[in-house]
Structure prediction request, 291 residues.
Amino acid sequence: MKKALLTSIFATLTILVCSQTFIQENKTWNVVECINWGGCGTQTFKIMGDTTVEQTEYKKLYATNDTTLSNWFKYGAVRENENRVYFYLFANATEVLLYDFNLNVGENFISTHNSIDYQGCPIEMEVSSIDTVTIENGEQRQRFNFSDGEKWISGIGSLYGLVNVGINYCVIDMYYDLSCCHENEELVFQSPDFDNCLINTVGINENSTRISHSVCPNPFTQTTVLNFNYSSSQTYRLQIINSTGQVVKKINQINTGKIEISGNELNSGIYFYLLTNDKNEILSGKLIKRE
Prediction:
């Protein structure tokens, strides 16, 4: 009888630790993104509303780069089936396996990721260990540790960010970290590396200041316009960098506070802009080019 009771308690605890619904309405993830020689910003993802794609039901995934948490744009869609999470990116109309929480130690996670950042980069990484962690609300959840250093937490996802599974295989000169995650407006994860969910820093030196600016529209298809607080006493330089750290466009000797960026010169994907002047003031952020 005692053995049966212990078995029952163990089974109950296992369910509490392992059974976490990943996809929930209004769940949010804040992901800090840094250029290794530039500044950092935060992209926030939120699940909000239902959609159907080719007779398959999903939850819509929205994103914003605005620290006021406005200007949301439709990023993709997610669905969950038997502890597996699938991701559908509208940009290329393809679904991939984003997470598999059924994995055991020694098994490989294999996926051809299709987020805007990755451009279809293949991923294969081995589970080195599985343990449990206590999250912010006191719950215990499974943690999957991979041989490349990546970690997943059940119900929260990769500590590199929701859609950044295996990003170390695919993107260089950019660094991604999950700063926090909320479920039903309750904080369930807070990275020890950050004091806040939203991070916006210049990353050049302590004396640098940020130039007031706006980019609209963003995402864009044809053209977008970068407006900034221009001073005729300064010389400005603009660089557009792709997700692998390659400078794909450079403009020197800018003499206006309005710069038009043509989408005809860029493939679809995520880019980063970096504007500097003689006083080492910096303007940086993310551009999203769509087909």
